[in-house]
Amino acid sequence: VSIANTINMPSGKIELIARTGNVAVTGVLGVDGTAQTFNDLVRYADAGSIVLQANAGNVQLLPGSVVSVAAASGGGNSGTLKVLAPGGTLESAGTLRGTAGTGGTAGQFILDARGVADFAALNTGLDAGGFFESRDFRIRTGDVVVAGTHRARSYVLSTDAGSIMVNGTIDASGKTGGSIQLSANGNLVLASGAVLTAAAEEFNAAGKGGQIQLAAGSQINGVVNNTATLDLRTGSQILLTVADFVAGDINTVGSSAFHGQFTGTLQLRAPRTANDVGVAAIGSDIRGASSVLV
Question: What is the mean pLDDT of residues 103-125?
Answer without folding.
Answer: 96
